Amino acid sequence: MIICTGGNIFKTRELAVHKGNPAPGIYRVLGESIPVQIMVLKELQDPETAYMFAVFLTGREKIRLDAMMTLIKKHLADPTSLYRRDLLEFKIKNQLISTEEMEVLLKMLNQANEQEKAKIKELLQSHPFSQEVKKEGKLEGKLEEKRKIAIKLLLLKMDVDTIAKVTGLTQTQIEELKKQMLDGKP
Question: Which segments does the entry list as coiled coil (predicted)?
Fold first, then answer.
């Protein structure tokens, strides 16, 4: 289905655009000497199509979370894909992973086999929590978020050393959290 031939550039160059080929949100430009596609992120509906744009999806929580989960699953299935690895590292290192996405990652960790757990732990260790410089005004909120993540990781029986690397908390702080959990006061 041709959806437009009207824009000046399309008319001048005798180009046509096909909508939804191969999926909704993807437009294929015909008439160019090299293959050209236009991605309209707000129109992407399927996580299988949207996962490669998970870094850039905003404002659509369900598709963003589903796309992120698909990206992580695909990375775990084939960690040799440098493209997917780079996408994940970009999102993690630039602190673009939301609390909801971190919770999805932690749930996946809980359901993963040992090999997948090792890969997820490696991803988590590259998260900036472990490299953050404590800043005034933001310290308390970040510390509380780190504590919440540490508690979830303790519940998943992750070792204290790995939790320290992931969250940036000290081993002493994590041991104290562990003690509080055993006393029923986290």
Answer: 99-126
- Quickly list DSSP for 97-124: --HHHHHHHHHHHHH--HHHHHHHHHHH
Spatial CB neighbours of 15, under 8 Å, sequence gap ≥ 6: 5, 9, 29, 30, 31, 32
pLDDT digits (tens, 9 = 90+) for 126-179: 555 544 433 434 445 677 888 888 888 888 888 888 888 888 888 888 998 988
Report the predicted TM-score, pTM, of the whole model to 2 decimal places: 0.57
In degrees rounded to 5, what are phi and psi of residue 183?
-80, -5
Please state, in angstroms and rounded to a whole number, the distance separating the CA atoms of residues 69 and 56.
Answer: 14
End-to-end CA distance of the chain: 58
Helical pair 61-77 and 82-93, crossing angle rounded to 10 deg: 130
Per 3-state DSSP, the chain is made up of helix, strand and coil in percentages (nearest 5) of 60, 10, 30
Q: Are 106 and 152 in contact (CB under 8 A)?
A: yes
Cβ-based burial of 138 (10 A; exposed 0-12, middle 13-18, buried ≥19): exposed
